[in-house]
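Researcher: Sequence recovery benchmark, item below. Answer with residues only.
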């Protein structure tokens, strides 16, 4: 069993923000696989066959709470899930799968690492940059994508969802070799 966890903030006002790209990728996967969501584990939760989908409602900074509930209920190991999140150091259109690593300053990852006690989980970082000069990081990540970025945004969400589907069928190394790059 594998869990696909998209990070973001649950309120409608955050729906189209850069910080919610993890939610957007999982939403695309849910749509493609005809998965409906219920509320469980402090999250929006869906299951299809041996794949679990989780969109924490705990807000970004407390994402680990929902992840731990899911892990405990399904008796998952740290290697049984993939976290999808934004990365402002990567340009929009860039994907980066990682097998493990630090939180890189990302509060959602920081929460998951703190509450699971491990950073040894797979992750997919989706570029939302470049950061706007002289803009505080929080304002940038909580801002919406610009209208001129919408085409790129839709493309990268589509590519990321394909990459996650391939990840579920293969392994992290295969998708790293194929998808870790700037796609446009």
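Model:
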């Amino acid at each position: 069993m594998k869990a696909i966890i998209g990070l973001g903030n649950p309120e409608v006002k955050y729906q189209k923000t850069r910080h919610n790209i993890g939610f957007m990728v999982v939403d695309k996967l849910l749509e493609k696989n005809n998965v409906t969501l219920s509320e469980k584990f402090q999250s929006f939760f869906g299951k299809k066959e041996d794949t679990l989908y989780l969109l924490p409602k705990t807000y970004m900074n407390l994402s680990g709470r929902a992840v731990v509930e899911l892990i405990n209920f399904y008796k998952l190991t740290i290697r049984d899930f993939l976290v999808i999140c934004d990365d402002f150091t990567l340009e929009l259109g860039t994907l980066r799968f990682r097998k493990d690593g630090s939180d890189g300053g990302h509060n959602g990852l920081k929460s998951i690492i703190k509450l699971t006690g491990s950073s040894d989980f797979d992750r997919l970082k989706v570029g939302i940059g470049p950061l706007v000069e002289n803009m505080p990081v929080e304002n940038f990540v909580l801002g919406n994508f610009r209208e001129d970025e919408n085409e790129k945004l839709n493309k990268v969400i589509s590519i990321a969802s394909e990459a996650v589907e391939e990840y579920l069928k293969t392994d992290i190394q295969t998708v790293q070799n194929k998808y870790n790059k700037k796609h446009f």
